[in-house]
Amino acid sequence: MLEISSLTKRYRTGDLALQGVDLSVGQGEVIALIGASGAGKSSLIRCINRLIEPTEGTIRVAGTEITGLPAGRLRRERRRIGMIFQEYALVERISVMENALSGRLGYTGFWASTFRRYSSEDVERAIGLLRRVGLEDHIDKRADALSGGQRQRVGIVRALMQSPDLLLVDEPTASLDPKTGREVMRLIIELARENDVAAIVNIHDVALAQRFVPRIVGLRSGKIVFDGPPGKLDAEALTVIYGDEDWTGEGTAA
């Protein structure tokens, strides 16, 4: 579903964020992306939907090459790539329902989107997804009245409202307490499977990735240095990804 070949990103400063990355993600497959700060995780996610421009290489989503698309075509293809942000990126002054429905903006006409006129099918789907994530009692609340975990759930629903082929999830638990973080990770995995959507989850918490995600990809200095199941992520693998450390103690969160 996602095919990345020889992806390289060099910033104007000369910093090399990604070095010849090759990565394949199948339909409905969920992977966790781990690595130290500066390893290239965020650069990889942002190259996939071209929030930043790759320097070299190709990216294909559901058979369409994303790299090199002109602006108009890129906007259409981005509808197939949902993004869930660490800081939620909601419109604080509008309701939970309106934020959820904003995931359909790429599919509506200009006037319909301007006046937020959505089809009954879109409204019904939004209600169903909000109910699925436990927000049925908060549909009419403003986004700024929600807790962090509730806001992240709205962000998940908004992304799924795009009917994407691929979800890009950037540090979904970083601003949440441990219990809420586990609940959000569980939801992301379950909803990706239920909707047959591939997902890449950029996450610092190694223990959380090991608990919930069936495939883990480790980056170091812009290169993939580990790709395998959680059971293979032993002390030796963690040293390759993060550097020397005593990995035998309690917890492996990074």
Polypeptide structure, described:
The two termini are 29 Å apart. The protein has helices at residues 41-48, 71-78, 96-101, 110-114, 120-132, 148-160, 178-194, 206-212, 235-242; strands spanning 2-10, 16-25, 30-34, 56-61, 64-65, 81-84, 166-170, 198-202, 215-220, 223-228. By secondary structure, the protein is an alpha/beta fold. It has a six-stranded mixed beta sheet with strand order 6-7-8-3-9-10, sandwiched between helices. A four-stranded antiparallel beta sheet has the order 2-1-4-5. It is 33% helix and 23% strand. The protein has nine helices and ten strands. Strand 1 (2-10) and strand 2 (16-25) form a beta hairpin. Residues 250-254 have low confidence and may be disordered.
Short structural description:
The protein is of the alpha/beta class.
What are the main properties of this structure?
single chain, 254 residues, alpha/beta, 9 helices, 10 strands, 23% strand, globular
Write the layout of secondary structure elements.
Blueprint: E1 2-10, E2 16-25, E3 30-34, H1 41-48, E4 56-61, E5 64-65, H2 71-78, E6 81-84, H3 96-101, H4 110-114, H5 120-132, H6 148-160, E7 166-170, H7 178-194, E8 198-202, H8 206-212, E9 215-220, E10 223-228, H9 235-242
Helix pairs in contact: 6-7
**Helical fraction:** 25-40%
Work out the radius of gyration: 18 Å
Largest sheet, if any? 6 strands, mixed
Structural class by SSE content: alpha/beta
Written as H for each helix and E for each strand, in order along the chain, the element string is EEEHEEHEHHHHEHEHEEH
Q: Give a count of the beta strands, DSSP E runs of length 2 or more.
A: 10
